[in-house]
Amino acid sequence: MPKILKALLAISILLLAAVYLSSIGKQDQPAQFxxxxxxxxxxxxxxxxxxxxxxxxxxxxxxxxxxxxxxxxSDETYLLRADEKFxxxxxxxxxxxxxxxxxxxxxxxxxxxxxxxxxxxxxKIVEGKQDKETPETPQETVSLTVExxxxxxITVSDNYSAILLAQKLVQLTGLKxxxxxxxxxxxxxxxxxxxxxxxxxxxxxxxxxxxxxKNMSAQSQNQPKNEIELIE
Length: 232
Fold this sequence. Notes:
Blueprint: H1 3-22, H2 29-35, H3 49-59, E1 67-70, E2 77-80, H4 92-105, E3 114-118, H5 119-127, E4 141-145, H6 146-155, H7 159-169, H8 176-179, E5 180-181, E6 191-192, H9 209-220, H10 225-230
Antiparallel strand pairs: 1-2, 3-4, 5-6
């Protein structure tokens, strides 16, 4: 056999072998069994880290829950019944947060400024009572820095913190038009409304977790980095 034919035959054999070997990984399991290839387990996509944290907790909680979470650094999201509507009585605290951030940015507030009020007075506001008279006898006082009040109001929905911030912000911003009741023929300081129910305040009527998360994400784009870290 001529040398040229031998060389071509050898090259053809090598090509066929290469093609055959490359197809081994694509064979179905019975075929791989006969040719002796290892059965590789299918690659599974890692579960969402947020899902791993939240799902076990929500599974054990009574009632009906919805959640929309977005990691502002990685854009990772987790949605659970995020399109269902829910009444959200604490939604007004988001307006308090945004106004507080604005006041901090304008140096109208400082993170270490002390906010304080009588506990009984705060309890009456939480309960929606209109009697705001200061008790005659000394009572327990709630005192928090702006930074701590902001963190507590947003991360654990603390009522005292939100009210302390709102009372301070009503002196600095237009928040009273949203959260506070103004008396037409009175020079007294506006009083906080009764505890919000299904419609906490007019400008922000979000009742879906998905819409709320989207709005929060948009708002965060305009906030300085240190303010975002304050509530992470």
